[in-house]
Amino acid sequence: MNGAELGRRLRERDLSAAPAALNLLESTSPDDREQAAALLAEVAPAKLGGEAPGHIVGVTGPPGAGKSTLLSAFIMHLRAHGYASIASIAVLAVDPSSRHSGGSLLGDRTRIAFDPADEQVFIRSTAAGERLGGLAAGTRTAAQALAAAFDVVLIETVGVGQAETDVADVADTVVVVVQPGSGDVLQFIKSGIMEIPDILVVTKSDLGEIAMRTRRDLSAALRSLSKRSIPVIAVSSLPPYLEFDRLAQELEQSRRHMKDLATHRQRLRRAGALRSFATEYGEHGMRALGGRRAAERMLAQLPANLGEPEIGAWLAEQMQQQTSA
Amino acid sequence: MSEPPSPRLPQRDRPWMMRTYAGHSTAKASNELYRRNLEKGQTGLSVAFDLPTQTGYDADDELSKGEVGKVGVPVAHIGDMEALMAGIPLGEMNTSMTINATAAWLLALYVVAAEREGVAQEQLQGTTQNDIVKEFLARGTYAFPPEPSMRLIADMIAYTVEHIPKWNPINICSYHLQEAGATPVQEIAYAMSNGIAVLDAVKSRFGERADEVIGKVFARISFFVNAGVRFVEEHAKLRAMSEIWQEIGRERYGVTDEKLLRFRYGVQVNSLGLTEAQPENNVQRIVLEALAVTLGRSARARAIQLPAWNEALGLPRPFDQQWSLRIQQVLAYETDLLDYPDIFEGSKVMDGLVAELVKGAKAEMAVVAEHGGAVEAVSYMKASLVDSHRERVRRIESGEQIVVGQNKFTETEKSPLTADAEGGILVVDPAVEAQQIAAVKQWRSATRDQAAVDTALAELARVAKGDEREGNLMEPTLAAARAGATTGEWSATLREVFGSYRAPTGVGEASAAAADDDLETLRERVAGLQELLGRRPKILVGKPGLDGHSNGAEQIAVRARDVGMDVVYEGIRLTPSQIAASALQEGVHVIGLSILSGSHRELIPAVIDALRKAGVDAPVIVGGIIPTQDFAPLKQAGVAAIYTPKDFELSQIMRDIIDLLEARSSGNGNGATAEAVAGSASA
Hints:
The complex is a heterodimer of chains A (about 325) and B (about 675). Chain A is an alpha/beta fold and about 325 residues long. Chain A has 14 helices and 8 strands. The model of chain A has no long low-confidence stretch (mean pLDDT about 85). Chain B is of the alpha/beta class and about 675 residues long. Chains A and B meet through helix 1, helix 2, strand 3, helix 6 and strand 4 of A and helix 19, helix 20, helix 21, strand 12 and helix 22 of B. Strand 3 (about 105) of chain A pairs parallel with strand 12 (about 565-575) of chain B, so a sheet runs across the interface.
């Protein structure tokens, strides 16, 4: 399979290249890894002449908060109302893998209604793999590649353990979804999740007062953390759908406010490459680079437009030089 | 010296009501069948509707393809209902309708059909199943989200209590829970919790008048239960249900009148345990299960319908249904069953069993209550049922639970019962679908006053948009029935207002199987396959068409996960193009489809066609109730493997899938999907 060709098609915003591109990016076979690198090189900032235009949005929250229902209704709303800046949508739905078998049940897809004839919407389920509660290694690169072709890439993860912070490491904007009356607010403040969101969404606002109270609690919590500017939106995913326009506007807003997208993405790419390096070469590899701090300083000297695989290759090269020296 | 009192009843009991769950092809054909059944001594009607009618679609909807007239009769409008009931005295008949999401609509059609015969609604007797919670849990023919579904039910109950006093507006079903794998304790607990949810909804519906009507409402709620072949314990289960139900009535709703407190139930005995292998054995299973619900007088069924011996093979013929009716008649008229008072009174064993079940069920009811009641606990209950069913499958697979003719005593002579050309089942004429499509189009364009229909549906939408203070949904539903609206139009109007809904699948929450040697071997093979494919083997499991019986598909999905595959579980009610789009986008290596409704001949080739057009050449395997004579055409359409109820060993199915994928990949780096797409787009 020709990775470069698939990358070129994504760069040219050919959405039909997405399934095959994902098959390649998820593969671990050596031949496919090579082709995947070629694919990613084609959608790297250097080739694109800037950052990938798509808005990468992480959507997370506790199980049962209504994330899939929200996404389902929201995507239908977006498609029905013709938002110019959010015309094409990719969804990466991440589910946990079984620790016993390594297998997974990817159930989110059933909860997201879609029109099979609509080629502007692409949904892909992925298993979190060995990263407990986190994102599969391929999800980050998949999101980056899809952002070359789609207007929005939504990454849905279940908020247990590390997933929230993981999703913050790949997304431009993080939406945290909260169910009304769940007592989550206090937990959130305790666990530090409130540090992460750019937008907070309270679901099931059709429940009325209880949803409004949760929204007030969240707003109060944000004020106490001096994060007053973070919007808290109470939506209803049942008809009559409430506040979906506001959510769409806030997403657009958040994208526009990212004045320095390049710096943000560059930071994410470097962090991601370093994390992959650590997984691949372990403590030993990290020591060869002179420790994490030293590695981060070295990365800061690299040109801004390098893609993650290139940064990774560069790190490996540095390690080899150090060990052979 | 006085004689000891006679152990017999002073007067022999009257038999229970005897029904046969029936309906197929068209309203006219079903009407003929009903009239014949009544002549044979059947004492009530039990209407089986086809899946489009049950889920609220007309025959010409894309989702109805292959399903029209298959598992029941299509009823699209008042004309169909009149044809279905032609010549049947509705003022005297007792009619049970297995209808849930669209129950309010079908009841309205029945009322209007009677009205046109000059029979007032006050005289009507019968039952609408109308139990939506179990549709979310086990049967899958829901149409609207839980909240508005509960409102529809409450509205119907409120209407019938006032206007159709002899009607049972809801039949709370534990039947389907057992079919989905429920243990007796789960069956009791979930049915009772469901009853509480309904009563609470009705109570709040009546507001200040609640106390005055709650006794009447309580008495109108009947149950529809299951009975398995362990008939002693099953009988105890019914006594336990009766005990708990009366306690709920007394303590939770303050009902004091003994008559109103009575636990009333109808029954369809177990189909889950009926086998495809040596299907003649099902006859004795059915007889024993019928004993479970008739043996003890204090917990005897009010109405019974028995499945046919060949249900695991396909749709039963009138002959097969007659055989089941005759079982009931022999029990009621030839045996001495009805001569005695309760024969278990004072039995230590029976009392002990009942006490055990009551205790277990109450504990499980407390768990459901903690989740916020039956409606809120659907996810929890569904996951518990998937787990129980998996345990049952495991016991049969390991031989711990003996199923005669299936996992033991499998040597058999060739059965003369299945020797005819059709394999001993009913085959619905495929022309029926086209006829029904033409008929419903004709009805819409030529028969009715369109302006009246538009007005009626607009009023239905208006009432639906408000809350119950806006009015009872039964009123505009009756008006729409009179105006000549169709089943699809009524449902579409409400879907527009209420939104559509997908029930939880329960598979995501299912716990991991305990590892055994078999599982370990399969996991190693999957790991090897992963090396070969570059990715973990990925399987899509789903059900095309409207059939909501998802137990089999769920078990395959859970087992595939347990052997280490990535499983995209698509759930129920999928069109061929949805399956094709999902398979393409997900990059799956293999696709598993399950159909039990008999629509496989139309739907499977349609799915394969859609897949190939989308550029997906992953192999397709099929499971379900597939008659042997359909194997050849399905294989010709491109199906790689077919599994039927006799293939109960899930491990073997997993081995087959791994073999299939190994043979296909032969060192090839990635999923077939990817190349096909890359190829088709660059061409």
